[in-house]
Amino acid sequence: MYVRDAKNREEVWLLDHIEEMGLDETNFRSRDYVIAIDEHDGRKAGFGRIRIHKPDDGDPVCELTSIGVLPEWRDQGVGAHVIERLVEYASDEGFDVVYSLTSADRYLAQFGFERIAVEELPPRLQERLDEKRENIQPDAVPLRVAHDDFTVPPRFRERFKNASAHESEPEPEDTAEDFGIDPDEATYKYDTGR
């Protein structure tokens, strides 16, 4: 399993899963995303985005958003490594602090994110929080982490090393009895009436 930058050809896949999971697609650009990939079969397992806000007045700010892990890959450290890659990217771009506006505050707290007061957010993110609460996540709260305080707990690293898709149980095949047909008495020939 590894995490890499998204490619333009993956836009449809990203948009489909963002919509399916009810995540934020505001100002969508595939180049802002990373994707977790299974190195054995190339299957996509999860994704996330760093959004850089460049206000007209003030310094740019960095927001972690739209983190999603496909159901069959959950609880295996995929989301943790997507977040780690995004925080590293933010640091490489010169951001010492990464913000997140989400209802997943307990999950992000494991990595060093701390809940902050709305007033502590940069003005652009205060507006963004209002938009997010109004449109897609009414219980979103503001969080932040300094790059130096970010950490991935060892349990996530171990899970990620051995991550594999949990296949869902195959659906049982439909039988004649499921449709109220007695298979011993019924005929399956098409009667043309001739």
Automatic annotation (TrEMBL):
Compositional bias annotation for Acidic residues: 170-185
SUPFAM superfamilies assigned to the protein according to its UniProt record, in alphabetical order: Acyl-CoA N-acyltransferases (Nat) (SSF55729)
Stored CDD domains: NAT_SF
Annotated stretches, region: Disordered: 158-194
Comp. bias (Basic and acidic residues): 158-169
Coiled coil: none
Domain of life the protein comes from: Archaea
Single GO molecular function: acyltransferase activity
Pfam families from the UniProt entry: Acetyltransf_1 (PF00583)
Keywords, alphabetical: Acyltransferase, Transferase
Name of the protein in its database record: GNAT family N-acetyltransferase
